[in-house]
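Two quick folds needed for the group meeting slides. Do the first one here.
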Amino acid sequence: MKNLLTSLYKGLFAGFAIGLGGFLFVLSTCFIEGEIGKIIGSILFSVGLFTVCTFGFHLFTGRVGQVFEEKKNKEFYFSLLSMFLGNIIAAFSLGLLCYLIFKNTPLYDRALAVANSRLNFDSYQNYISCFIKSLLCGLCVYLAVKSFNLNRLKLVGILLLVFFVFVFVYCGFEHCIANMFYFGFGANFTFFILVDMILCVLGNIVGTIPGVILFKLFNRN
């Protein structure tokens, strides 16, 4: 029970950190026009994952890959669920708080545009696209966290973390926790949020598998 509570409160901190990264992305793309704003926002988003890794917070997408690294006991799976709950509660709550503070401002309009871009499910191609983007995001996050942990607080580890985060944010890949922040900030409450969450979670999980394989091959050499 104690481990579950630990995963929950560390999951809350992790969700808040990822929400902060999402806020920095919205802030940058709102006030800096064009590709420059998107590039800066994508880089600044890495502040969220850097905070998670540095302080040892529990981020679902950063730890779910361990399932495929080695056999885990039941307690680990319950911890995953606990941290996931903490992640989505904190990210969505921070989004709602930002909505209450910044509604009727350009920041809200930008956040709503980001949220709506995640909810375009008018054809089967969009469902497939969402899953593929989620899969690629899962791979990027796994590689970012793994690279940082192997080179903890060293320049190469930090640069790799920033690089992989930049790739998934700039390319518009789907991160299940970050999306919850955008939905909260955009005050977007539709049925398709549930659809997006299911596809994102599945994609983020499956996306860690090629990352696990890559690191196992890397460690053999």
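Then this one, please, same format:
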Amino acid sequence: MADKTLFITGATGNLGRELVRLFLEKTGDRLLLLVRPKSSDSHHSRIEKLLGKFGINGRSKNRIEVLAGDVAQPRLGLKQGDWDRAVRETDEFYHIAALTNLGAAWNEAEKINFQGTNFALDLARVMKEKGRLKRFFYFSTAYVAGSLTPTHALEDELIEKPAFANAYEETKYLAEKKVREESKRGLPVTVFRPSIVVGDSASGAVSEFNVIYPFMRLFAHGFLKKIPARLEHSFNIVPIDFVVRASFAIARQRESLGRAFHLVTENPPTLRMFLQMKEEVGNFPPVEVVDPEEFSMEDLDEHEKMIFSSLNPYLGYLGGSLTFDTKNTRQALRKTGLSFPDTNLAFLRKIAGYAVEKGYFLPNNF
């Protein structure tokens, strides 16, 4: 396959940086990276630091061009010259940027996840009409189905009225809905839906402790003494290396056009396994698991109620009521040599052990 030019948002994020590294290692593609400058760091500086961590230089580094921008701004905050170049040269568009903080306020999540996707679609439409865009890859989430929805979510459908646990799920749902509308109008779309992305399957390593890790930290510090769940309830987590390698491989399949793929585990760990792991990796306080039907906020003291309110965005992930269809993904993986990840007790030990090693659970990091 001839080398292409890829336009990528979210390159400095947990998932985006790993995809960038894989593109540089496995292809000769040129990368146009949309990066938001920070007050302490220019867009160039942020990528330089990232590439330095990867040990990437020379020819690979020369295949990267960094464009200053911001997904939360109209036209992605691009200068006219950068906009024109992106339109003219982009073969594939990877929209990865997202706010994944489950506790984020609605306006924050809506600005980045929904409006940011709208602005990305504005550019993609122009790329297709006036340039040479062949594919638009959107990184959604398996939880567009709503983590509180008792259903089996299908890959190529959006549930009409999901039950959301947080603004992250709802804004990603609204964004994917817009992406699907553009697909019906002719935009060449493929949707990837990872579940809860955690550390590497071999080492447990992760660049950012987000999504499920803050929840784990509440356990570690004893702020949660009771939790409304059942020990057999499962939560769907997926190692980042699987998400990166699977999306990389599936994106290269012509059959993936117009389809969605659940990048999940088919055998998610249970709360029982999670609590067992907790006891093994650290001297953490015990947690009482209370049947949801018997749990009442009124039984908690004021401090516990305050802490429990911070847990609300995570509760759906321990409900065990939402499962995922993987027919498309299973079929696509047959051609890649990849398989669904094993997220057993040993894997839980790896991701928690890495967080312990990095001091994530220390009180001064709370």
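Slide caption for protein two: Residues 106-130 form the longest helix (25 residues).
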